[in-house]
Amino acid sequence: QVTLRESGPALVKPTQTLTLTCTFSGFSLNTNDICVSWIRQPPGKALEWLARIDWDDDKYYSTSLKTRLTISKDTSKNQVVLTMTNMDPVDTATYYCARTRRGYSFGFVFDYWGQGALVTVSS
Amino acid sequence: SSELTQDPAVSVALGQTVRITCQGDSLRSYYATWYQQKPGQAPVLVIYAGNNRPSGIPDRFSVSNAGNTASLTITGAQAEDEADYYCNSRDSSGNQLVFGGGTKLTVL
After folding, report:
1. Which of A21, A89, B92, B103 has the smallest number of Cβ neighbours within 10 A?
2. For residues A98 and A112, is the Cβ–Cβ distance under 8 A?
3. In this complex, do A111 and B54 lie within 8 Å of one another by their Cβ atoms?
4. Tens digit of each residue's pLDDT (9 = 90 or more) over B13-68
5. CA distance A100 to chain B (A)
6. Measured between alpha carbons, how far apart are the two ends of chain A, in Å?
């Protein structure tokens, strides 16, 4: 059974750095074509893809947020960590991690999602 | 701004067929994947390239592609299909994953 769970602070102050952890089970990030992505959703707004880390440790970031994001993995702990620097109130959102499966015939699919973690940026 | 464009809202009568579209230049090269999100819940994968559906997704959901447009069709919409639907694909560079702005489906 595949599960993912996001954890981190519910409230951060402007200019602070956010660190979110995705703890997963039921799969390994050492498996070919398995990745983990971070996706966020501001209240009442659309989903936004943030970053992805692949089984081979390749990392990809949203162009618009690339300078503020870092993604890393600890396969021994089954965890993926996302840091976002210089937080602003517009970054208030629910942050999701999702298992991402790559296939040459279909590209990438987010086949399992965590429940999401609401992060509010406010002083 | 998103490189994938969706109509903000669509409605369908119960039991009728509805098509939700997603437009973008990258769709000429890459498949779209579709996600359903109900209020207060995480998104759920509904269908992806070649009409692949995860276990538990009914076969009334299907996809098609034409040029720069990907379409999600629900044949015989049910009340439980009322939700927001998001398309996702790669951007034109192929390195980024992008979402459409979402379509709110109302089943009347």
Report:
1. A89
2. yes
3. yes
4. 999 999 999 999 999 999 999 999 999 999 999 999 878 999 999 999 999 999 99
5. 11
6. 39
